[in-house]
Amino acid sequence: MSGQEYIDRIYHNVVKKNQGELEYHQAVKEVLESLKPVFDKNPGYQKQKILERLTEPERVIMFRVPWVDDQGEIQVNRGFRVQFNSAIGPYKGGLRFHPSVYLGIIKFLGFEQIFKNSLTGLPMGGGKGGSDFDPKGKSDNEVMRFCQSFMTELYRHIGGSVDVPAGDIGVGGREIGYMYGQWKKITQSFEGVLTGKGLDWGGSRIRTEATGYGSVYFAQEMLKVRETDFKGKIATVSGSGNVAQYTVEKLNELGAKVVTLSDSSGSIYDPEGISGERFEYFLELKQLRRGRIKEYADQFGVEFRPNKRPWDIKCDLAFPSATQNEIDASDAQMLIDNGVIAVSEGANMPTTLEATNLFLAANVSFGPGKAANAGGVATSGLEMAQNASFSHWSRKEVNARLHEIMIGIHASAYAASKEYGQPGNYVLGANVAGFKKVAAAMIAQGHW
Ligand code: NDP
Ligand code: 2IT
Cβ(431)–Cβ(34) under 8 Å? Predict the structure, then answer.
């Protein structure tokens, strides 16, 4: 069977067996298209049924999460953990709490995580979990009761060398704290079963900043290939959560000017740049007050654009850092027409397939999420290493390792893109480089 026939057959089966799970279909399709030349060149993978095995999660866990709200009413949410692939290490990946969460979202994120974790060079398999619980508008006590109930079921499926969850949308330091507390109460053990912990109780320095910093480090490498840097460049950033915050901080430090932010209500455009006291205000607004981005516009007298994404604003660099499918083909075309030279995906799958192909055709340097946002999980891997050795590294040391890992991911994705005749196509490069290591491990370990 040719590479094309093989991937067509796999895709057809994935759609049939995972009906209605559109995000999962999309994530698989992108990877399969990249891998076609690999399958043409190496028929051995087909014999090993590598794609049949890779696209079927090792284990899917779904469970009821009952909790009591502040009015004394019982609420019921659904919890998920998809343990996708453990070929190169314990399952590793975040937990997402958002009302849109269903099995298709968790599978897409878990599938991407396999290749992302492989690219980091650290021994981590792929997994993802979460719930359709919406932390927005809930009191701290409600969030705590939810997290305790969630962990009361999840604890039996995870462990420091089994499966190590972390944060994602709607799960930050507060939620990790409540879940870790419950884990400890149930198991009586203090081990690195979650990452993103507080610095005084097993967390790693720089983990909070890591995804945003890493996305900028990845963009820096893409700019080096184009023989340029951040100085004087205009950047658009979407989102205003953990990833967006530290993307903005690092871009400011490296000399770019960031002019947009967004949340699910709309975006702000600040042509002066979100730095200095404006950046401090933004952090306080989102981290302490958990407010809406519109308040930034009110505070500084800049434009708030209800229900609008940032992509019509002219920029050199774009950092989608909110959620999946937030850049569609018309957004991509606007960015291209306005002269964008690089896109670094801080979010997971923020760009539709059609939009991705437009960027590639227009020779925009495009860093796909599984490479560009791998700094978060990489630093989670460093947190696991510190926990396992009962040590705590300095900020400088963790940052240096993160930077080195991002340079390494860029280099391996670039090398693979070159090997397959499309230098600078990081979608191809990241998928191929991430895949090869996992496939080799699966083959070495026999049929399972
Ligand atoms: P946060 O919860 O801290 O922030 C999410 C941001 O995105 C908020 O501004 C939120 O707005 C916005 N957002 C979320 N969902 C939607 C939606 N459906 N439509 C519009 N806006 C939305 O999450 P993170 O910053 O941690 O995550 C952002 C992205 O980065 C996600 O794709 C995540 O998977 C990815 N990622 C995160 C990593 C991490 O370490 N945290 C690592 C690698 C990738 P609002 O508050 O209004 O909902
Ligand atoms: O998508 C991701 O890589 C994350 N949300 C981080 C996962 C982790 O285990 O740190």
Answer: yes
